[in-house]
Amino acid sequence: MFSSDQIETYRAQGYMFAPKLLTANWLRLLETAFQKNLDNPSPWAGEYQRKGGRFFTDNSNFSVIQEMQDVLYDSPIVDAMAELMEADRVWLYYDQIFFKEGEAVRTGWHQDIPYYVMDYTDQVTGAWISLDPLPANMALEVVPRSHRGPMYNPVNPKKPTEGFFDVGNPPVPDIEADRGDWEIVSFETDPGDVLFIHPQLLHGGAPMVNGQQRRTVTLNVFGPEARFCPRPEGHAPTFPGLEEVIEAGEPLWHAADKGFFHQLRPVPEQRLGARDRHDMMHGRAA
Ligand SMILES: O=C(O)CCC(=O)C(=O)O
Known about the structure:
Blueprint: H1 4-13, E1 15-18, H2 24-39, E2 46-49, E3 53-59, H3 66-74, H4 77-85, E4 90-102, E5 107-110, E6 124-130, E7 140-142, E8 155-156, E9 159-163, E10 194-197, E11 203-205, E12 213-222, H5 242-245, E13 263-265
Antiparallel strand pairs: 1-10, 2-3, 3-4, 4-12, 4-13, 5-11, 6-10, 6-12, 7-11, 8-9
Helix pairs in contact: 2-3
């Protein structure tokens, strides 16, 4: 799917914009998955803003949404991520949706990796998919090459100017206050276009204006080299009980046959199939 030059550029820059990767049939399934999630939020959902605009997010609903499973098992999206990670096997870390409407606020600048129970690796990546057309100034913004720079402490997703928990690193720089000092990249996005990012890349979601809606799905996966690194209370998503089945430093996929992390590639002979939310409340695996 990608040339070795494209993969090298992704590795060096920390992101890749892939226009028209998803065809209309996959987008229709993702739209259905998005709507089902919006209509049936999980206990991990968050309403970050209700006044002036709306900013809603939820995560880890793969297990209960058939259409999300169909896209992850059968569309080219996970094959593309496998290539970028140069991984022969791929597991789901989590799926997430972002719904922004009207004058929705910015998603603060952050890196994902300090929230992840994972050591730094190139065998982890995320796909950012907008189901609505967006001008570049309302899409995801990234700082090229920042995935090779320092890891910062996580920010509070609800109050991005505040720190969240301490992983022993500096706070995220105030990029908004000094935008001119930073190289910031974003893309005019049409449905079907995908932005892949390394989760240590500094990124943030631009604010929105009245009359605009943004339905975004993100898919986050890892390969065999990703290793377990416990994080302090407050990280998200959480995987309760994970530390009882694997040790720090052990490959995360070792937990895959113990109820965590669904395998996506090779596609398992026994596909998951949509479960009842009810059954997923305890010992959740995504
Ligand atoms: O879409 C957004 O506003 C933010 C996405 C994001 O931060 C992420 O996927 O980690």
